[in-house]
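Request: Have a read of the protein record below and say how the chain folds.
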Amino acid sequence: MLHSLATWFMALVGKHGDIGKELPEALSGQKLIQDQIDLILVIPPIPDTHLSDATDKFRAVMMGDIKAWGILPSNVRVLNISRAKAYGVISP
């Protein structure tokens, strides 16, 4: 997760030109640096009843990086397939 975030950021600021060219339009543009970042981990088979606990554990593991990147803890979550589809993270 962290390597992906760092690589994306470096592509946004022009440090990875070849990767920057491959970014979809929705993930490119300097304005994104100012927007709030969502960190979403999709675990396909996890039942809805366990999402809250899994999210709490994910936030705890990511806390140092959440603070370093200025990400709101509420923007860090775990989703299952159905919720990821509803949230628009993956195609229906």
The beta strands are 39-42, 76-79.
